[in-house]
Design goal:
The chain is of the alpha/beta class and 206 residues long. It is built from seven helices and seven strands, in the order αβαβαβαααβαβββ. It is 40% helix and 14% strand. A seven-stranded mixed sheet has the order 3-2-4-1-5-6-7. The relative contact order is 0.23.
């Protein structure tokens, strides 16, 4: 898990690429305490490092986010707040998120397997009878953010989880995360029709 106190350079470059145009910063929450496999982790909060890194990202922005959404879980709410905006809770960003169709079966899936197995399985097309297909769930995330971008000026922030942000990135960019993982407080910038990730612009799939 990342411990670098400074925000991701590629994330800051993606923000700069907006040149002041409206956009949404979709990120994984900052560094948290460990979640043992088989536990929900719903109550797990940010570490001191995670809190410091979220505050550092906020200082790197040109001003406070003009709007904020987050998963209802405390570590996401706290991340958005420390960046500089009080978020509105969104179930699309977590608990249960855009991919889980059956909360009971989805909980069993996440509790019974390593997170890497679940996320990479989603990206490769698995649904296990309880999840939406990758494109369907990712489009729910994009619709939520695109609506905010259309209505709100400036840069907003949306804080979610690796199990949501990574499949969205895979859908938008084609990156499979076969050999890497999304660090805490990393993500991408979303506009109505494109995303900026790791220094590149990708048109959103139609």
């Amino acid at each position: 898990m990342a411990t670098n106190p400074t925000p991701s350079p590629s994330l800051l470059a993606s923000i700069s690429a907006l040149n002041g145009a409206p956009g949404a910063l979709l990120i994984r929450h900052s560094d948290r305490f460990h979640i043992p496999q088989g536990q929900s982790g719903a109550a797990v909060r940010l570490t001191d490092t995670g809190r410091a890194r979220a505050q550092a990202l906020g200082r790197q922005l040109s001003g406070p986010p003009t709007w904020a959404l987050s998963s209802p879980l405390d570590r996401c709410v706290d991340t958005a707040t420390l960046i500089g905006a009080t978020p509105v809770h969104s179930a699309v960003l977590g608990a249960p998120g855009p991919f889980v169709l059956d909360p009971d079966l989805g909980r069993d899936l996440f509790h019974g397997h390593d997170i890497g197995y679940v996320v990479r399985g989603q990206i490769s097309g698995e649904t296990w009878g309880c999840m939406r297909p990758l494109a369907e769930g990712a489009r729910l995330v994009h619709a939520l953010l695109a609506e905010q971008v259309a209505l709100q000026p400036g840069l907003g922030v949306a804080v979610s989880h690796d199990a949501i942000v990574m499949p969205y990135i895979a859908w938008a960019t084609g990156h499979t995360f076969a050999d890497d993982w999304l660090d805490p407080l990393d993500g991408l910038v979303v506009t109505k029709s494109a995303v900026f990730w790791r220094g590149k612009c990708f048109e959103v799939p139609r």
